[in-house]
């Protein structure tokens, strides 16, 4: 077998790994390192643990989406080879603390209003109007804070 034939030889993966890889690409958007990931898959004999691994992958994806919705930073997805080699499928999803649970009960509008209340009191009307031009979704909050602004300005 020549070098050219070896280069064109296609790697074969187990059916279980193919299922994992298809879901991994869909969830993470990362497709690099398939052959290295398969090396760890074979090393740890993960064919029999496919359901556990897919459940862990789904749980991590759900936790990441939840964190993103709460504006909490999470690192980018690692490569599949790293995820398998470090056995991240055994990781427990992070628990929310009480403060985060409370924070989730507030609506985005309430959070924005609380954040902007102090900011509005430090700005002039001209600055607020300029801000509304840049951030139209803040207009409703600024309108709700208008009575407080008038009282502050003595109007």
Describe what this molecule looks like in 3D.
The longest helix has 20 residues, at 50-69. This protein starts with a helix and ends with a helix. 66% of the residues lie in helices and 0% in strands. The relative contact order is 0.08. The protein has 2 domains: 12-94, no CATH class; 105-153, no CATH class. The model has no long low-confidence stretch (mean pLDDT 77). α2 (15-28) packs parallel to α4 (50-69). The chain is elongated. The protein is an all-alpha fold.
Layout of SSEs?
Elements: H1 3-8, H2 15-28, H3 34-43, H4 50-69, H5 80-85, H6 98-105, H7 108-121, H8 125-134, H9 139-144, H10 146-153
Helix pairs in contact: 2-4
Features:
single chain; 66% helix; 155 residues; mainly alpha
Quick rundown:
This protein has 155 residues and is an all-alpha fold. The chain has helices at 3-8, 15-28, 34-43, 50-69, 80-85, 98-105, 108-121, 125-134, 139-144, 146-153.
């Amino acid at each position: 077998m020549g070098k050219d034939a070896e280069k064109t030889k296609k790697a074969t993966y187990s059916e279980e790994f193919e299922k994992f890889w298809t879901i991994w690409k869909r969830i993470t958007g990362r497709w690099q390192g398939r052959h290295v990931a398969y090396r760890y898959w074979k090393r740890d004999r993960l064919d029999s643990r496919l359901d556990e691994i897919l459940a862990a992958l789904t749980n991590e994806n759900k936790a990441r989406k939840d964190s993103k919705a709460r504006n909490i930073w999470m690192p980018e997805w690692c490569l599949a080879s790293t995820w398998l080699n470090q056995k991240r499928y055994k990781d427990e999803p992070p628990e929310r603390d009480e403060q985060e649970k409370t924070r989730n009960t507030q609506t985005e509008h309430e959070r924005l209003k609380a954040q902007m209340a102090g900011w509005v009191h430090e700005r002039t009307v001209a600055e607020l109007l300029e801000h509304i031009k840049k951030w139209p979704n803040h207009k409703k909050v600024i309108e709700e804070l208008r009575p407080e602004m008038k009282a502050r300005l003595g109007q």
